[in-house]
Amino acid sequence: MLLWFVGPAVAVVWLVFRSPALDHRVVALGAVLPLAEGVTGGPHALHTLAGAVLALAVVMAVTRRRRLVRRRWLGLPIGLFLHLALDGAVTRAELFWWPFFGWSFGGGGLPELDRGVPLLVLLELAGAGACWWGWCTFDLADPVRRRAFLRTGQVDRALLPPAP
């Protein structure tokens, strides 16, 4: 269940911010990072609104007066917020609003695995479609642009529409 988080997260960030300087690799990392909680047996802080807000506060505090470093690492909490939207964590109030409804994260496994296998496959295919959209939109078939994207996470500025 990786493509469902990576593809739409990068697509949403591009469509909303249109920032070629944002590191889209870090957005993708933030979008998949909560999946690591599956190793611990269930969802914890990374599947909560408080966890994403705390990550944003830490990035803002640690990168004070370092604009370029901040631009790179802001993608992490943005990816975490997008993960919450894409995995349906908001439907599990005790988890999403932790600790406001108590200190328990609620029972059960990861919210992204609460769906049936057919829906998981459809979501992964939709994520693959979003990745394909990004490949075409960012012209990653061009080896120079692809290497630059993989090295920096940034999109070629030439792909931006002209300013009005």
Walk me through the topology.
Layout: H1 3-17, H2 24-32, H3 49-62, H4 67-73, H5 75-87, H6 93-96, H7 117-137, H8 143-152
- Alpha-carbon distance between the two ends: 39 Å
Order of helices and strands: HHHHHHHH
Shape: globular
Strand content: under 5%
Let me know the number of strands: 0
Number of helices: 8
Low confidence ranges: none
Tell me what you see in this structure.
- There is one protein chain.
- The protein has one domain (3-103, 119-153).
- Helices cover 57% and strands 0% of the residues.
- The radius of gyration is 17 Å and the shape is globular.
- α1 (3-17) crosses α7 (117-137), α2 crosses α5 and α3 (49-62) packs antiparallel against α5 (75-87).
- The chain contains 8 helices and no strands.
- With 164 residues, it is mostly helical.
- The protein starts with a helix and ends in a 12-residue tail after the last helix.
